[in-house]
Here is the input.
Amino acid sequence: MGSNGSAGSAQLRYALNDVENMTTFLSDPRCDFKVKSPSWESDIWAVYRQLSEIASLCDSNDTFICHFSGHGRLVRGSLFLLWNNSDTNNLTNTALSVEIIMKALSYCKAQSKLLILDCCHAGAVINMPKNGDEAAIDEIVIKPDNFLVLMAAARSEQAREVEELKGGFLTANICDAIAGKLDEADFDKDGRISIYDLKKWLENRFKQYNETVPRQYHVPLPYLYGQYRGEMFITLPDHNNVQNKWDTLDYWKGAQLECCLTGHSDSVGTIAISPDGKTLASGSFDGTIKVFNLHTKEIKYTLNAHQNDVSYVIFSPEGELITSSYDGTIKIWNLHTKKVKWTLIEENEDLLPIESLCLSPNTQHLFVSSYESHKIHVWDLPARKKLGSLSKHKDGVICLAISPDGRILASGGKDKKIILWEVYPKDQTLEEIYKNYQILPESNNSEQHSDWITSLAISPNNQVLASGSKDGKVYIWNLHNGTLKDILNKHSGAVISLAFSPDGQTIASGSFDNTIKLYNWHTGKIIRTLTESSGYIQSLLFSSNGQMLLSSGKRCSAVLGVSPMSDCIKKGGIINIWMNKSVN
Here is the structure.
């Protein structure tokens, strides 16, 4: 639905065109929605009634999308959508209230619900002013707890019509993805466009467009908001093409060992690449951290501050290095000065060996676990203050992973359970996080790991969770509803590390059986097995461009005979760099 505006407002050129295009493409067989568009000549009460009637007809298997293109106005903390006969002096009775629309969606029984707001001030859904004053960024006034809102901007910014697109930036690019760019917008290559594919598509188009126009013509970044468990798809699967797509995704068939990095005197248990892709950090059981130039493959310097094995290294988006140790401390390093900026330490508590770290994408929260404790400690990183702990596991917590969108934290433990914690939005209290969790599997009668959960990884599109265990198996889970999708061919030893390739198509698993297995997880087939004949695998990491796979552990040997291995040592730590030779 939409309107170019009332007589008392500046007229838009393409809002009705947006509505017509959205109607056309959503009703196309590739989407197959039953579309109803209220006439722009209807009054708002007729629109409300029609919206409520349609919502009431949905059942639990349906997807319900409500789209609006037109003017948005803020009045005393409420967002109104202007209709053709709206009176700007009486918007309550002549314009569509977003709050009323959202209530209609909340009562709808459809499993998947999406509200699309292509209008000015759409971000007021989450940043609504109070008493006429601008609200703080990320202050949430309305909390959609069972549907999503896709808005033209995250803040109270102006949406833009784009002349060359003949429509609003948000709507035109949604239609473009459905109509002509389905293959390009299908980021996970499953033959259909999910809401998270669409989100990534819009982010890419936003970046491309703003790079080509002067600053005064920049468009705001579309924003997806809400709390939702499940898979929401905009298009139907292409059954004739999807299997062929999956079968052609075996990019790593030609993986070859490029070189190995040495220098540690004991096993390398953790590695991380800096955000700019130029620096590699490694943590070892020898208690040191080594920083490599990833281009020259040379050690730049060694950091010494921990009193025991270094258990985890991660980079913040700003390039600071965060390290943890079995000495119970966490250190934040300034790599320019090569000095420790801060040390985080548990006060008035026994220092337990830290096994895993996980940093939220917005760098607000640092999650910390120990194999000797059932608690996950939560730190406010900017304030360097411990907020509390999450404690639903019954034994030590061995591994952590957070979804790229920052919504879900996954934890795995010695109790053989995986727990999914809803940690979004940023201002959610620890008590709210503690209440919103899901244990996998939900029933002890369901298929599950038979031993400790030793590794976790979440796909780049936030849809899939992979878990590895001492039982040697890799399980593939639907991250949003917790269902088990597949069990991949098992290792003969514990699966200590997992990693998704940046395109989300390949999973690498590293094991104590001295092998790395590369899977096409869509088909469950092994693409390649890389063998370390004299050393076990403790950590895996793909480069951001997907061309390198780095593995670390203890000792090495020349397996594929591609590169000279004279620098390798038979004892001590090793980092191997595998190149994807399948790509020209």
About this structure: The mean pLDDT is 85. The longest helix spans residues 195-210. The chain has ten helices and 37 strands.
